[in-house]
Design goal:
It is a single chain. The chain has one helix and six strands, in the order βββαβββ. Strands 1, 2, 3, 4, 5 and 6 form a six-stranded antiparallel beta sheet that branches. It is globular. It has one domain: SH3 type barrels (Roll). The model has no long low-confidence stretch (mean pLDDT 81). The N and C termini lie far apart (60 Å). The protein is mainly beta.
Length: 114
């Protein structure tokens, strides 16, 4: 029987960021001390130093470089899954088959100054 406590948990977090759907992996997910946010820590990126480089993963690694913890607004989180192994990190357009409509951050047709 394997020791579940010794194994690190791995989570796949799917969230909206600047009109795109991001999928990344983390070893820590919890409610944030900031009201209305989810705390995502210990981001996991591919560490293989090979000839094949995934440009999406490189973009994410650069975007989140230096971030110890991400505090994601609850409205932007589409799904959190506990997974057994890491898959590819993805950035895709929101219109590419997403059937989930997020809670609106701002009413349609209004600007932040209204």
């Amino acid at each position: 029987m394997k020791n579940d406590m010794a194994e690190k948990q791995l989570y796949k977090i799917i969230f909206l960021n600047n009109g795109k759907v991001y999928e990344l992996f983390s070893e820590g997910v919890t409610s944030s001390g900031l009201w209305g946010f989810i705390e995502v820590s210990d981001l996991v990126f591919n560490t293989n130093e090979g000839l094949v480089v995934d440009p999406t993963e490189e973009k994410m690694r650069e975007e989140f470089k230096g971030a110890r913890v991400l505090h994601l607004p609850i409205q932007s989180v589409l799904r959190i899954e506990e997974v057994e192994k890491r898959g590819p990190c993805l950035i895709r357009d929101r219109e590419s088959g997403e059937k989930v409509t997020p809670f609106p951050l701002q009413p349609q047709g209004r600007s932040a100054s209204d």
